[in-house]
Specification:
The complex is a heterodimer of chains A (about 160) and B (about 600). Chain A is an alpha+beta fold and about 160 residues long. Helices cover about 50% and strands about 10% of the residues of chain A. Chain A has two domains: about 1-65; about 75-160, Glutaredoxin (3-Layer(aba) Sandwich). A four-stranded mixed β-sheet of chain A has the order 2-1-3-4, with helices on one face. In chain A, helix 2 runs antiparallel to helix 3 (about 40-50). By secondary structure, chain B is an alpha/beta fold. In chain B, a hairpin with a 5-residue loop joins strand 12 (about 395-400) and strand 13 (about 405). The chains are: A alpha+beta (about 160), B alpha/beta (about 600).
């Protein structure tokens, strides 16, 4: 796949650019995730070799921070805010409803590969509580009954 | 410079952006142009105004008309009526929750939400365009840096900060001047200034608003700190979840370099200082100073024991001085106006102002900045507009996962570092979540423990194992399986964890449990002994019942029940079979006669 070859080239460029600055591992992992959408083992191996650190160190960092993913996300990532302000206004019920409608536990991707359902830390949009985001789209002041309609919108878009 | 007769200020903070302010700005610019007003009216994307509840917020100057919850469809009317014909659009003017007053002639300062506030850290938020350094300069920007570099010695700068009484706004409340003094006293070939912008407490977003609304204030303060302690490099560690803040910081750093306010030989004094940004990757523990520095070094963000303190051995094993965003936001003002001006505000041991993020069950969700010592009641009722839907106030949670819940009896507590600790909570970064009678305090404690268990880095046993044991007990209690003695077990575990955990995260993790036991012990006892949740929140402990007097037999509830638990004949009172009831609450939402209730 020429596309993948291109991505590996980009990764090597990033490594070459950053490898001499102190503490380069995190920025490299962040850029790598930007390129590949996640940081699977083979990408981690390249990073370890490129930066001259052990694979266990790279894996240790990649699994410590919740932002790094070892597997790709679905096409749409749904993030329901479980910050305190959203929680006291019922975001858990919104999350439960999503899990039910998608048939997916929290943290996993739906069987059709379309949606990944996440619970996130405070998004800081407390004025809109309870809040969720689907990719970059923000949905605020939600009630569980809003969920089927919102999901249908995305499913229709996919069928079209 | 072009002169305009009117300015349209649109909030470009995260809250308002989430409700579509970017589209508003686009539409305003387009409509203003269509009406040939583009030489007369300027649209400015500002930082956060603070009153997120009313977002997206638009203010039109010179009149200062405050429009709230503006939609794209409203823009045409504001342009053709207000900007073209000079007639304010009355129906879009902000309406006060408490008084229902909708006065188009009232400026921001006269509105209840702003009347009691005193803005120092937020002074430029919602006032200037954060992406334009010239606007910051016009508001005395970088004047404090110039003053420090050209007319003050390092010792004088540190002395001024010490005398001001400024304490760390990230939660610890350590005297900022002392931190600077210690770092200045360390001898090394390289020192670092760092900024903690890893704002992780749920419900706290003041640091983000400062970075989004006034990024140069933080850069200027870091440069002043660099001069004071003898550092030439600075790092800002900011959450990756704050894309707007990161973007504006990058723009601000670029502009400051261009103007020679960062870089080499600043103000031709021979002082060199530059700043790098590092992004977090979603780990709450990285808000702890030693963990944050490990993360900047590209390692797992695990805390390390202190001493050695960062002022001696910090980032890359060099002396490092780390302050929080809001702390920095006060620095330039203290240098400009003097320590006495700052120390005149606040209480005996807590000087100046504090920004709070008001959220939860409150009418005016948003950011407020008040002098230290302002009573909780003023913040929640006078500024926050009280509790919505006529519900009763139950508790206010301060200090995030490290803090506690304070009951109504303590509403008159003047808020400062020491009073909050004495009351069993803490300042934390300034999140303030209001809870009403529908919130179960045991469940809130469980919610916070769930958070800490998830965010514990796992390095030390008290935090890794202890908080999990506490969570298990709390889960049992909310599921109706609490046992006599559970409260004492929780208290015991809490005491041990507080005394033995390695870092602040673990040491303060039991606080939400301890404070809810202290003030709401009866709720714990009701769950454990009577198997009842007084707030009717915990699903395992509640039953839905139909009041036969009110039920009209419309069958709506029976049709919506997913478990087939509701039976009854048409036009006759229905009933719920508790053994089949899934407690989803769908029937209650559907009933139009208010016949279904939770017991």
């Amino acid at each position: 796949m020429p596309d993948m070859k291109d991505k590996y080239e980009q990764l090597n460029q990033v490594i070459a650019e950053l490898k001499d600055q102190p503490g380069a591992l995190m920025p490299v992992l962040q850029k790598a995730q930007g390129i590949f959408g996640c940081v699977p083992m083979d990408v981690q191996k390249i990073i370890a070799e490129g930066l001259g650190v052990t694979l266990s160190e790279v894996y240790g960092v990649a699994t410590f921070y919740s932002q790094f993913r070892l597997e790709p996300n679905g096409k749409y990532t749904i993030s329901v805010c479980l910050g305190t302000a959203c929680y006291v206004k019922g975001s858990q019920k919104v999350l439960d409803r999503l899990s039910e409608e998608l048939g997916t536990p929290v943290g996993k991707t739906s069987p059709d590969g379309l949606f990944t359902l996440n619970a996130t830390r405070c998004l800081g949009a407390c004025g809109l509580a309870p809040v969720m985001t689907i990719n970059d789209e923000v949905y605020g002041r939600l009630v569980p009954d809003d969920i089927p309609g919102i999901l249908a919108k995305y499913r229709e878009k996919e069928q079209a | 410079m072009d002169i305009y007769r009117a300015h349209v200020l649109c909030c470009g903070g995260t809250g308002c952006s989430s409700s579509g302010s970017a589209q508003l700005i686009e539409r305003f610019e387009q409509k203003i142009k269509e009406n040939g007003l583009d030489k007369e009216v300027k649209v400015i994307r500002t930082g956060c105004f603070g009153l997120c509840e009313a977002g997206p917020v638009v203010i039109v100057y010179p009149e200062g008309t405050f429009y709230s919850r503006v939609k794209v469809e409203d823009v045409d009317e504001i342009v053709t009526e207000h900007l073209l014909k000079g007639r304010k659009v009355q129906h879009l003017v902000y309406s006060d929750h408490a008084t229902h007053e909708q006065n188009a002639n009232k400026g921001l300062a006269e509105i209840n939400f702003y009347k009691h506030q005193h803005r120092i850290a937020l002074r430029n938020c919602g006032v200037i365009d954060p992406e334009n350094i010239d606007e910051y300069l016009a508001f005395d920007g970088y004047k404090a840096l110039e003053k420090a570099l050209t007319s003050m010695t390092r010792e004088q700068v540190i002395d001024e900060i010490l005398k001001s009484g400024l304490r760390g706004r990230g939660g610890g409340g350590f005297p900022t001047g002392l931190k600077w003094k210690f770092a200045a006293a360390s001898v090394a070939d390289q020192k670092y200034v760092a900024c903690n912008a890893d704002e992780g407490d749920p419900g706290a977003f003041m640091d983000r608003s400062v970075l989004e609304g006034d990024p140069h204030a933080v850069l200027e303060a870091m440069a002043i700190a660099g001069y004071a302690i003898g550092a030439s490099e600075g790092y800002i560690y900011v959450r990756a979840e704050y894309p707007i803040a990161v973007k504006r910081l990058e723009i601000a750093i670029g502009q400051a370099r261009e103007y020679g306010l960062l870089g080499e030989n600043i103000f031709e004094t021979g002082f060199n200082f530059d700043i790098k940004i590092r992004l977090g990757a979603g780990a709450f523990v990285c808000g702890e100073e030693t963990a944050l520095m490990r993360s900047i070094e590209g390692k797992r963000g695990e805390p390390t024991p202190r001493p050695p303190f960062p002022a001696v051995k910090g980032l890359f094993a060099k002396p490092t001085m780390l302050n929080n965003v809001e702390t920095y936001a006060n620095v330039a003002q203290i240098i400009l106006n003097g320590a006495d001006w700052f120390a005149a505000m606040g209480t005996e041991k807590s000087k100046g102002t504090k920004v709070f993020a008001l959220g939860g069950k409150i009418n005016n969700t948003g950011l407020v900045e008040v002098p230290m010592g302002t009573p909780l009641r003023t913040i929640i009722y006078d500024i926050g507009g009280g509790i919505p839907n006529g519900k009763k106030f139950k508790a206010v949670q301060t200090g995030g996962p490290s803090g506690g819940c304070l009951p109504a009896e303590l509403l008159d507590t003047p808020v400062d570092y020491d009073n909050l600790i004495a009351a069993g909570s803490m300042m934390g970064s300034g999140g303030m979540i209001v809870m009403d009678e529908d919130n179960c305090m045991v469940d809130i404690a469980r919610f916070f423990l769930d958070f800490t268990v998830d965010e514990s880095c796992g390095k030390c046993a008290p935090c890794r194992i202890g908080t999990r044991r506490m969570l298990e007990i709390l889960e049992r209690i909310v599921n109706g399986k609490g046992e006599e003695g559970d409260i004492e077990k929780l208290e015991n575990l809490a005491k041990t964890i507080k005394a033995t955990a390695l870092c602040g995260l673990g040491q303060t993790a039991p606080n939400p449990v301890l404070s809810t036991i202290k003030f709401f012990r009866h709720e714990y006892e009701a769950h454990i002994r009577d198997k009842k949740c007084p707030a009717h929140h915990c699903q395992a402990l509640l039953n839905y019942v139909i009041d036969p007097e009110k039920c009209r037999g419309c069958t709506a509830c029976a049709r919506v029940c997913p478990g087939g638990a509701i039976s009854g004949e048409v036009k006759k009172p229905h009933s719920i079979d508790p053994s089949k009831c899934l407690k989803c609450g769908a029937c209650m939402e559907k009933c139009r006669f208010g016949a279904i209730s939770k017991v």
